[in-house]
Amino acid sequence: MLNTDGVPEPEKIRSVQPSAERRAQGPVVWVECFQEIPCDPCHDACPAAAIAAFEDINDRPDVDHDTCTGCGLCIAACPGLAIFVIDETYSETEAVLRIPYEFSPLPGVDEEVTLLNRAGEEVGTGTILRVQKPATFDRTAVVWVVIPKDLVTEARAFRRGEQES
Ligand code: SF4
Ligand code: SF4
Questions:
Q1: In 40, 88, 128, 142, which residue has its Cα 20 to 30 A from 155's Cα atom?
Q2: Percent of the chain with pLDDT over 70
Q3: pTM over cut 0.85
């Protein structure tokens, strides 16, 4: 449970998922921000105004998935590491998950990684597609990972170096 171990309940996760129709159109943001905290840089980071202005700084983000272009600029702006972009049109069997990443060293392109769910449990294997870390992202990189399409609702992190064991 979110309040005890930080893992959101399935109904909370479902409540913020983009629709299947929107997901089938290309990359789209998944904002998994469930707590009312004084924070709103996701709104400022969005050039498409897909994240509405906050009436109260403690509000949770109000996301319009149909307006979202999937640009990913909000990912590194979120101090809670709560924003992902997922592209389910990458291939017939695979999707691309963009993840905020604050560990060092960064992974390399084509590196195989162990995919983890929100509880840190292993759920499969992915492959690094791209690593973004421009100066404008400050200390947060955005890592693009190719994942099995059936893990789009599960995989939310990865671990390096142990998938060969
Ligand atoms: S992915 Fe881009 S368009 Fe979509 S909410 Fe984030 S910043 Fe806005
Ligand atoms: S920046 Fe992140 S933590 Fe802050 S309100 Fe937006 S999604 Fe939530």
A1: 40
A2: 96
A3: yes
